[in-house]
């Protein structure tokens, strides 16, 4: 096998491992995205970062069936996973991933505050493909996004539309989490218990102050 062939094979192996990691997350792609958004990318070792970079690439390319339609990128990520790769055999740079984090978190804050958010896709192209030879009765619409980072946002839009009501920020520890129930406010029982304990202590102090004031008034009488 040629050096190019080995590089392609190695890339595919790492890519499939990344996809498996996403799929086996407790909440699947949603769980992976929320973990990614809260990962300190600059603190990762080169090995740790490479794993995340492959996961970002896999999330964008392989989750289209569930989150958004087909996408035909005009260019890949900035780092070539395989020499002379154009689109799919590439992975993001750390800066690209940091920019994605910042953009998506900004949209999430607006979504929580206003109940909606707007993503802008400059020069987006929609490609219509005629039905195939198989059982396809309708043609296919493919979104062509010039930058891979915008493709990430496109996937996230559909994910947010399907699961947005359950993506929350814990009011106690500020962790972004995926709620199990609609009425779940805290990420974990310990956060809920901590808040309950604090409220109980505050209520006890308030009660003691009231008792003290009543005692002083009674003494004056």
Automatic annotation (TrEMBL):
Domain of life, source organism = Bacteria
Q: Where is the composition biased (Basic and acidic residues)?
A: 201-211
Spans annotated as Disordered: 201-221
Give start-end positions of Basic residues composition bias.
212-221
Name of the featured protein: Zinc finger CGNR domain-containing protein
Q: What is the lineage of its organism?
A: Bacteria, Pseudomonadati, Nitrospirota, Nitrospiria, Nitrospirales
